[in-house]
Amino acid sequence: MVQAISKTMQKGRQTQNAFLAGLRNTSYADIKKGWYWNTTMPDGSTAVQPAIDSNILWGPNDPNNNYPVEDGMNAGLDYGIMDIQSKYALDPAGRVAGYICQFASPQWNYSPRGTGRFTTSLYLIKKSTVIKQACIMQCHRSVFCVSLAFNLVTNDCQTYAVSPEDPRFAASVTAESSYQFFHRDGMEF
Q1: Beta-strand relationship, 98-99 and 17-24
Q2: How far is 62 from 60, CA to CA, in rounded Å?
Q3: Quick check: is 61 in a domain?
Q4: What digits encode the pLDDT tens for the residues 57-88?
Q5: What residues have CB less than 8 Å from 95, skipping those under 6 apart?
Q6: Residues 27-46: pLDDT tens digits?
Q7: In the chain, which ranges are continuous DSSP H helix?
Q8: How far apart are CA 8 and CA 144, in angstroms?
Q9: Which domain of life is it from (predicted)?
Q10: What CATH number has the domain bearing residue 54?
Q11: Exposed (0-12), middle (13-18) or buried (19+): which is 44, by Cβ within 10 Å?
């Protein structure tokens, strides 16, 4: 994610920082815990997904909670992610910052990628009992969905915020032939 942000920011160099849709639940004592993605959908509703701690590429001195409550995220060019006060419209140095926007492509392909499912619920977005096409649609409608596991016998659908092919999460996959994995093409990890 930070590489994509950095490439985007380098194109114009008008801004050095960009706000992200990351917020922190401040009831957690540990400043590295309680982060989540808060995305406004086209219909005005909000999609919320807990952030996976290992996917947040913090800058060398962050998060640090330097101000009374730093509960927002900002991406700094050539730095990484930093925690900031979410109530401000300027970056920490007082410059106007850009925003990183996310959208769902009108057309995605979902490729079969073997069999199995995740053994932990940490990466689970939604679990339901639906037909395969409805399972794929659930993934398509979630801005956070990267992959899904579908059981052809029980119609168990599990949508995930990570890929079983990502080496950081592959150890949490159990081989289970009754579940087929699908990956949203074009999603990088």
Answers
A1: parallel
A2: 6
A3: yes
A4: 899 999 998 887 899 988 887 888 889 888 76
A5: 15, 16, 17
A6: 988 999 889 888 776 677 77
A7: 2-12, 132-141
A8: 20
A9: Eukaryota
A10: 3.10.100
A11: exposed
